[in-house]
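Q&A log
Question type: sequence-to-structure
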Amino acid sequence: MGKVHWVPWWWVAAGSAGMAAISSVTPLTAAGWAAGIGYLVVSTALLMRGIRQGRVERFGPANAVTATRSMLVGLVTALVVVSFTGEVSTALLVTLVAVALALDGVDGYVARRTRSESDLGARFDMEVDAFLLLVLCVYDARYVGWWVLAIGLLRYAFVALGFVLPWMQRTLPPRYWRKVVTAACGVALAIVASQLLPAPVNTVVALAALLLALESFGRDVIWLARVNLAGARLVSLEKASTISPPEESR
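Response status: OK
Response body:
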């Protein structure tokens, strides 16, 4: 198990090399380097902790795909930070985002084909998605307004509420619609970042993405609240073992 702990660091090295290559096209500031490397190091450290806690013995091809996506998110992060003080290549930024979004549909397929699905892999994939959306929101705020940050912050607000309301930490049932909404939000934010559409249309696209995200998170909160209310009515552990949580509404 010791060897697998070091595998994710190869993507940190690859990301560092990618940032050096980007510098030849769009010079990166010190803040850009710090943001990109910081993301790569912190995300990899968290992944390694998950590997240790889960006693994972094989990194697997699906996690390799997700790690590649995470590396691309690190490059996007660096470019977004640089964009606040200088010019960056919009085409390069959008291309990196597009590749990261395209790979989002690959890691799940690879996991199923290789029968290597895992809770760690699903969590890794989800956190990469969440951070990419947040970074894109930060970039797009200059075009449609700071309200767009709500899209990227919903995931982190959901997690934060779990510390205040323990019942929100319950494991949610699988729901494909979450992946659809995440992908749609990513595409919408990438379209806004590309600046290919008129400003009013960009606002409509971003607003549609926000409404989709609110619907998806709202549905999960309602499901968790229903399960919590059902649990509050249980009168004994014996009864609890015979009662199933309510079916998720469709």
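Response note: Residues 234-250 have pLDDT under 50 and may be disordered.
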